[in-house]
């Protein structure tokens, strides 16, 4: 099995990748970062993947390379995969992620999104389209740093197996 992380370079996608890498190391699971890159220069500019320059023309490979570098900086052990699509709509991106998830069959998909309350009614959310698939668990990452959890103090003999 593996953990799948849709990765667009946003700070919550970075957080999801960090979390997946931590869980992957602890549970001996592979981590796959997946970037879906629309072949659309204006989309790439809007999301901050590309700055228009004459000496460096837009290409999906260029953007994928930048995203791959981001994955390597955060989780060097993670595999990277990118997929090219024609349109940059949330529905198209979510559909492609879901297709790849059906192929990979991950045990968990780690989603970085602040729209967790809107997942039930995904209008413009990639996360909503991915989360609705029932063939894998979804770990939603809403904060860059996980909340701290106080240590649980168990008294000797207070734990029983049952």
Automatic annotation (TrEMBL):
Q: State the species of origin.
A: Halosolutus amylolyticus
Record's InterPro entries? Answer: Rossmann-like_a/b/a_fold, UspA
Task: Write down the Gene3D superfamilies for this protein, in alphabetical order.
Answer: HUPs
Could you identify this protein by its name?
Universal stress protein
Q: Which domain of life is it from?
A: Archaea
| Domain UspA, residue spans | 3-142
